[in-house]
Structure formats: structure tokens, C-alpha cells
């Protein structure tokens, strides 16, 4: 957002709304597509049948990103920095109050969190995530409120770096002690990141850091960690010039991030369509998806459960890296 918002601001209201709404709808729809894909499933008799789309989950990671992008972009566009800071603090405190006063006896648990009641009423229980054993959506409507602030914090961090790098002396990109060099930038980033971590840990005492319901303390704490990591990367890459194969490995992922994310989701779901007979149980054949079969017959026997699980994940990361590398080599960049 730090790179795109200035262009939207130059274009005016019409350009901003057109771009933001279009991107929001596209990302949200791609998320719905992933939830529905591959549109068929195996029934109890092992026969492929169409999915019951009346039970399609509405929310998801990309849907959350779409909504957060929309609201954050609108707030950044229309509010001055002081107003944006005030609204961000209000949203974080408001979410805390909603959790505390609208929740059950244990307001920060899956059962007591107030957002589940609202998600059931608005989305419908059949359209929610059921992977926790109960109807609960980790990317639900209410937990989107603090997540919007996290996008705004990311915008601030990116915008700060851009402004600092455009000050006199920064174009040399070397360690300088003069005002406007990299060291003042890093100092400010480190201080801001550590301060956010400290505030998040303090807030955790009364408002627990909880990723599942995306608590305000989680937003502050993880944003602080991200800023510190970002500052470290700037130090090693921009000042120490530690660039090479290791940095290029991550570069290619950043060139087509949305496409690789969607592809990884499609890949896993296609695994489930390929069923392989794997033994017998009570006189009937037992089938496993291709992904599970590969792990059970290749990685687990060779490396054990823990190391096998780790290497199984690395194996797939490398597959997607080669795809991202191939796209980058041919200058193919898929954007929304």
C-alpha cells in the first residue's frame, strides 16, 4: 500500500474508488474460488459428486486480506496521519471492549468469543470454518476490525522507509553517519518495533495475545516483530550488502506472491482428488490422498515423523520456488 496509495491519491476520488473496489472484489472472489475448488468431493461410497455449495465457506485468508485492504485504503486516503492514528487506536480499544463486554464467561475462548455469534447470524453456521470441531471462523467478520489496523501499521512502516530513503544522502545506499543515512532509519525502526513488542506484551496481561481471534495485543506484538525483522533485513541487505543467492531465493516469491499462494491452495486440493489404495480395514480397501500417501511412503519412512514432516514441507516450498523462479526468469508477473 505504501507504494500504490500515492498514485491513487494523485488520481483523485474516482480513480481511488475504482482501483480499490476492483482489487477488493477480485481478491475476495479468488478466495471464494479457492474455498469451492475443486468443486467435487468423494462421498461415503467413494464416488465423486458435486460439492454442496450451500455450505460453502464464505470467509478465508484472501477474503480477510480483501476486506482489510479495502477499509485500510479508504482510511489512509481520507484521513490525515493524526486522524488515522486516532481511528486505529479507537478500533483496537473498541475491539477489546467488544470482546470483554459482549463475550461469554471466557471471552477470549472459541466458545466465549462474541464474534462467533455475529458470524453465525450474518454468514450462517454452514458457511463458517469447522476445523476446530465447532463452528468458528478464524477469518471472521469481527476479527477483521483489528486486522485492518495491522494493514495500516504496515502502510506506515513502508511509507516511513520510502520517505527516509528519499532524503538527501540515501541514494548512495551505504553506511553513512550523516543525518538522513541508513543508521537513523534503522534506529527509528528498531525503537518503533521494540516499543510495539513491549506494548503488546504489556497488553497481553489483560488482553491475551491470541491469533485465532486476532486480539489487539496480537496485532501490536506481531507488528512490532515484523518491523524489527524488516529493520534487520535492511541492515544486512542495504548496509552490509549481503546479497546473493539467498536473497534471490526470497525475491522470486515476492514477484508473484498472490499467484503462488493460490497455486499452493489448488495444489493441495488436487492431492485430495487423487486417491490411492493403501491397505485394508475390516475387509474393505483404505484409500489415501496423494499428499498423505507420498508422506507415508517416502518422507516418514526415510526421515521419521518430525524430520519427514519438515522435509515434506521443504519439498513443496522448492516446487513452488521453481515455478516462481521460472515466471520471474520470463518476466511474467501476475497481478490483481
Keywords:
two-stranded antiparallel ribbon, mainly alpha, globular, 12 helices, 4 strands
Please describe what this structure looks like.
- This protein has helices spanning 5-11, 13-36, 61-78, 81-102, 114-122, 144-165, 182-204, 216-239, 245-255, 257-273, 290-303, 305-329; strands at residues 40-42, 48-50, 275-281, 284-289.
- With 336 residues, the protein is mostly helical.
- The protein folds into two domains: 5-173, no CATH class; 250-329, no CATH class.
- Helix 1 packs across helix 2 (13-36), helix 2 packs antiparallel against helix 3 (61-78) and helix 6 packs parallel to helix 8 (216-239).
- The longest helix has 25 residues, at 305-329.
- It is globular and about 70 Å long.
- 23% of the residues are buried.
- Residues 171-180 have low confidence and may be disordered.
* DSSP helix fraction: 55-70%
The chain-level mean pLDDT equals 90
Q: What is the string of helix and strand elements?
A: HHEEHHHHHHHHEEHH
Task: List the domain count as a whole number.
Answer: 2
Largest sheet, in brief, is: 2 strands, antiparallel
Helix/strand-derived class? mainly alpha
Low-confidence stretches: 171-180
Q: Could you give the order of strands across the largest sheet?
A: 1-2
What form results from the Cα inertia axes? globular
Span between N and C termini?
Answer: 13 Å
Approximately how much beta-strand content do the residues carry? 5-15%
Cα gyration radius (Å): 23 Å
Number of strands: 4
Amino acid at each position: 500500500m505504501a507504494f500504490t496509495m500515492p498514485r491513487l491519491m494523485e488520481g483523485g476520488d474516482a480513480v481511488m474508488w475504482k482501483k480499490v473496489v476492483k482489487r477488493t472484489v477480485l481478491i475476495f472472489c479468488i478466495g471464494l474460488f479457492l474455498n469451492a475448488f475443486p468443486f467435487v468431493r468423494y462421498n461415503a461410497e467413494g464416488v465423486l459428486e458435486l460439492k454442496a455449495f450451500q455450505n460453502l465457506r464464505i470467509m478465508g485468508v484472501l477474503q480477510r486480506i480483501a476486506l482489510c485492504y479495502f477499509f485500510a485504503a479508504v482510511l489512509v486516503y481520507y484521513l490525515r496521519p493524526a486522524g488515522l492514528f486516532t481511528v486505529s487506536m479507537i478500533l483496537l480499544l473498541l475491539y477489546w471492549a467488544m470482546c470483554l463486554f459482549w463475550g461469554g464467561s471466557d471471552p477470549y475462548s472459541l466458545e466465549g468469543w462474541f464474534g462467533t455469534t455475529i458470524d453465525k447470524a450474518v454468514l450462517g453456521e454452514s458457511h463458517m470454518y469447522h476445523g476446530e470441531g465447532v463452528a468458528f471462523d478464524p477469518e471472521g467478520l469481527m476479527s477483521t476490525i483489528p486486522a485492518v489496523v495491522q494493514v495500516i501499521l504496515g502502510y506506515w512502516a513502508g511509507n516511513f522507509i520510502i520517505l527516509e530513503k528519499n532524503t538527501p544522502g540515501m541514494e548512495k545506499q551505504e553506511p553513512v553517519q550523516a543525518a538522513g543515512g541508513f543508521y537513523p532509519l534503522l534506529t527509528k525502526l528498531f525503537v518503533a518495533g521494540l516499543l510495539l513488542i513491549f506494548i503488546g506484551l504489556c497488553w497481553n496481561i489483560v488482553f491475551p495475545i491470541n491469533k485465532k481471534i486476532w486480539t489487539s495485543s496480537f496485532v501490536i506484538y506481531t507488528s512490532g516483530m515484523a518491523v524489527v525483522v524488516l529493520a534487520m533485513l535492511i541492515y544486512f541487505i542495504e548496509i552490509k550488502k549481503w546479497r546473493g543467492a539467498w536473497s534471490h531465493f526470497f525475491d522470486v516469491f515476492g514477484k508473484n506472491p498472490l499467484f503462488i499462494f493460490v497455486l499452493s491452495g489448488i495444489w493441495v486440493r488436487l492431492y485430495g482428488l487423487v486417491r490411492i489404495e493403501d491397505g485394508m480395514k475390516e475387509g474393505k480397501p483404505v484409500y489415501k490422498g496423494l499428499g498423505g500417501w507420498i508422506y507415508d511412503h517416502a518422507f516418514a519412512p526415510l526421515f521419521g515423523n518430525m524430520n519427514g514432516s519438515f522435509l515434506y514441507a521443504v519439498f513443496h516450498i522448492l516446487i513452488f520456488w521453481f515455478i516462481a523462479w521460472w515466471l520471474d526468469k520470463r518476466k511474467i508477473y501476475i497481478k490483481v
